[in-house]
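Run log, item B.
One chain of 98 residues. Sequence copied directly from the ordering sheet:
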Amino acid sequence: MPDTAPDVQVGALAINVVVPDDLRWTDERRDQVFELQTITVRLLPDGHLAAKAYGRPVGGGRGGYVSFRVPDRPELAALIEAGAAAAGRLWSAHLGLE
């Protein structure tokens, strides 16, 4: 589909990537331990990616929506990059509005 609106400004490009069970980790915030289950990935204006992790309290209940730093682990970097590439393929193959 050709670009018919070159003056359109996109304000945010973000996706959520599910962290497979074997790559999940825990972190603590406000005296609660969280299991990190998803990563929100944003495409920055310069083309680089930024990522924050989110999860649920290990002890159950409702925890606040708090972001965590994604650890510097090669397997998590690969997951983020694969998620961004998959999202790009899905977006580029969209079928338009129904």
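Observations after the first pass:
- The longest helix spans residues 74-92.
- The first strand starts at residue 14 and ends at 18.
Flagged for discussion on Thursday.
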